[in-house]
């Protein structure tokens, strides 16, 4: 896919969606090891059930990392100026996360052209799991 040059980006431009593999126990174990987040609700079935969950579920920050990948597939990491999200749902085992981004504002700060994007992560049913905004430099 040919993305427009950064200087040609307009309000309404949508980043190509980032579709990830289905969440499985291996993904959760690997993320726990990499992040240092060993909260048992994400890796221990018995603990999750005691917490009244049907099974373990994905770390919220794993989905935030996926949103970061959505952005860095488009622009270099050093051009990200801000990233803010709120968790709106639980990503269960078997869910297929898909991340979306859309330019909602163009502006300038100290001579640097920037874009504000609405970003979100949903599962294969369209159920929202994360909602947020990012600001990136368009240089």
UniProtKB/TrEMBL annotation:
Pfam families: MaoC_dehydratas. It comes from Pseudomonas umsongensis. It comes from the Bacteria. SUPFAM superfamilies: Thioesterase/thiol ester dehydrase-isomerase. This is Dehydratase. Gene3D superfamilies: Hotdog Thioesterase. Residues 23-91 form the MaoC-like domain.
């Amino acid at each position: 896919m040919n993305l427009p040059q950064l200087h040609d980006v307009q309000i309404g431009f949508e980043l190509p969606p980032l579709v990830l593999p289905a969440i499985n126990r291996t993904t959760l174990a690997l993320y726990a090891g990499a992040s240092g987040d060993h909260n048992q609700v994400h890796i221990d079935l018995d603990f999750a059930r005691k917490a009244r969950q049907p099974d373990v579920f994905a770390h919220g920050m794993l989905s935030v990392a996926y949103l970061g990948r959505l952005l860095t597939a488009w622009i270099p990491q050093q051009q990200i100026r801000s990233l803010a999200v709120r968790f709106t749902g639980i990503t269960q085992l078997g869910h297929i996360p898909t991340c979306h981004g859309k330019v909602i504002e163009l502006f300038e700060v100290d001579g640097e052209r920037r874009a504000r994007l609405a970003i979100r992560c949903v599962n294969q049913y369209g159920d929202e799991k994360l909602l947020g905004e990012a600001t990136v430099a368009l240089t």
